[in-house]
Amino acid sequence: MKNIKLNNGIEIPQLGLGVFQTPKGEDTVNAVKWALEAGYRHIDTAKVYGNEADVGQAILESKVPREEIFLTTKLWNDDIRAERTKEAFEESLKALKTDYVDLYLIHWPVDKFEKAWLVMEELYQEGKIKAIGLSNFHKGHLQKIHEIAHVKPVVDQIESHPYMNNQELIDLNKSMGVEVEVWSPLGGTGGNVLQDETLNKLAGKYKKSPAQIVLRWDIQRGVIVIPKSTHKDRIVSNLDVFDFELADGDMAAINQLNKNLRVGADPDNFDF
Ligand code: A2P
């Protein structure tokens, strides 16, 4: 496992388990426990996923010390609009059964996100959050945050996979010292990225699965990646991407699969 150092000095494991669309209850508890057993030390959830309580329960039951786990959650849009950042954060802590989170993100750049950011800065200064960042922020939103921020965001979490690699936004963030986390790295639940012919050929060449090829591509292009699965075998194999290396030509072949095809909402045009 590799760590990436964020701009405030703290380290994040480059690969974590995402639990977007992992049903609450037993599915989430099992997924998180299997992941921790397999060696994952980074879990990414959000208030709106409805499974923070299960993530917290799984962490406790796993017996892995809390401080060994990098835990992310996100501030939901309604809470930003209602200016209840502090309350929402406390609710998340309670659900997660912990007294701090490693990373707290603004989930979407909805109206009043600047106000929320300033409150998150306070929580960060109080030590209740180890790092603060953004999610689904595009160029214009990033400029607004950079104008008002006293604390630089450590990450921007955005959609990125071989059919929508979002490389320009990744490069923009990196040029500002902001690391990028990628969501729906395997093309999400409805996508067909993993059926791609090039990825399947590369899977044959490296004797890995198409998912492992994609995740390795992410590791080598220097982004933080949070694949989701509810299946134990997939959770285990998705972490097994640190024992091989894609050749430059194969990295380029995956880069060329881009067709700007989103599987999720567009940060410039969404209504939730
Ligand atoms: P499942 O949870 O049934 O395993 P993303 O991380 O891009 O959101 O993609 C997750 C989707 O890819 C889910 O539908 C998940 O389904 C599936 N998935 C996760 N890991 C693998 C894998 N190793 N092989 C095939 N499909 C996978």
Automatic annotation (TrEMBL):
UniProt keyword Oxidoreductase, yes or no: yes
Gene Ontology terms, MF aspect: oxidoreductase activity, acting on the CH-OH group of donors, NAD or NADP as acceptor
Annotated catalytic residues: 49
Protein name per Swiss-Prot or TrEMBL: Diketogulonate reductase-like aldo/keto reductase
Binding site for substrate: 107
Site (described: Lowers pKa of active site Tyr): 74
Homology family: Belongs to the aldo/keto reductase family.
